[in-house]
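Input set for joint prediction.
Command: fold jointly, output tokens.
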Amino acid sequence: MAEVIVVTSGKGGVGKTTSTAALGAALAQTGQSVVVVDFDVGLRNLDLVMGAERRVVYDLINVANGEVRLQQALIRDKRIETLYLLAASQTRDKDALSEDGVRRCIGELQGKFDWVICDSPAGIERGATLAMRYADLAVVVTNPEVSSVRDSDRIIGLLDSKTMKAAKGERMEKLLLLTRYDKVRAGRGDMLNIDDVLEILSIPLLGIIPESEEVLRASNIGAPVTIANPQSAAARAYADAARRLNGESVPMTVPSNRQTLLNRLFGRRAA
Amino acid sequence: MTIATRPPRHSFRFRGRNFLALVLRPEKPLPDWLADLDQWLERSPGFFTGKPLILDLAGLDFSRSEIVEVLAELGQRAIRILGIEGADAAVLDDSLPPLLTGGRTSGSVEAVDAIARKPPPARAAPKPAKAAPPPKSAASAAPAKAAAAGKAAEPGEAAAPAKPADPAASANDDEPAKAAEKGESADLPAAAPPVTQVPSLLIEAPVRSGQTIINPDGDVIILGAVASGAEVIAAGSIHVYGALRGRALAGAYGNESARIFCRRFEAELVAIGGYYKVTEETETGLRQKPVQAWLSGNDLKMASLDQAENEREIATWRKS
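tokens >
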């Protein structure tokens, strides 16, 4: 039975889609079967980041509404055999998703894969709440700046009240993924530092992804950063986060591109 | 002879206003419901004065004549209805209040309900005129709180900023409150003890942005932090054993002896009994410190908890 993860944030542009693709690819690289599901109906992006935009025929809405079989809508990645994409519809909007349809679709995916990773739309409305509804675990993507942190806090509140797990009285597990972190700027006080963010959100840390040009380059060539440039700092940070999701214990560091002796000595440990 | 033409108006400007409307929901049989309402009004004369009121008929099978009857009965009690919600549009004609749609439930209204549902208080419970709903929206919070504290029947007066407080308003409010107290003590046997048992609400998790914690009966104790954008409202005191970054409104139903305590003060707004301060008005020296806030007359005071201790020590030292 697959673990269902929702990648969410409240605020837009913090790196939900990038993180979904990178974590999905990193998990699939270990040989497990992974499906990434784009819940951003009407503003789909995950297909672009995955480099599958020319192969989308059917989408999540078609499957959720029972118009096609799941097998027809799943798109297999060309680089990693065990990685699949279920795209969102670009022509419909979030109202086209029914709660019942989402439940059936997630249930079916759970039977076929080891990991189901849902890329939530920004905001706190229907699309976002449907994406988190049937998740077992939430990855809260946050940038080290006040507006993103406050929005994440809001989303954590919703995760504790609007998910199936919360409705059943169970504890919804939430992990923080801090993205676009710049050690130098945080040191100067231009950015919140890791301890501030952890203190405000008070949820466990899954990983710290450094600000990196590689991320932008990767999405431009249509590949998750963990495939496009596995040696880059961001890719290594995502790979570490994926190993933590797998249950491995990996020391918390901020990988850096310039691996000088000083950087290695002062590799930041958080939490 | 001059011929003046008015410059053509290209646009017409409208302004938006937010009011917190109270929703009345009649129940059948009507005479029983009206009797309950009369009982409630007896305890809280003037509660509805100046407040926008909506009649909620959703799911109730009221005919046109019944609606007219309800409105007439309410009219006799000086309760005027602004609009009707959830009724069949075909039933309402021009002589009846308009049909309203798109209303959103507000947490504060629930708080009012909670008070309204209480059994008749056998004690000096919340002074009726003070039982104004706590504010919901950021923009209206402060003036609305002023209304709660000012308990003024006139909206204009109520909208005056709470700090510096209007002495006239506070003089006003005391009167109905005292009257109500007197009325109550006349009804009650002299032996009725003052209330001591007030339920407090204990929250063991952080209060997240966007969440509202309301205890319309007593204190609120929070073991985690109160995030920026969260709101804690209590009839009594508020204790936060983490950082207070959101809003805290203690004594929201008029208890002016309520206090706010927090371990780390970074609040957006603190209010007690309707008197409020926003971050900008607080001493910067108090930020991130353990702080308590209390009401001294019309002034909302704040001090570091450590400092209060210092002062007490000095006071006792002087006495000895």
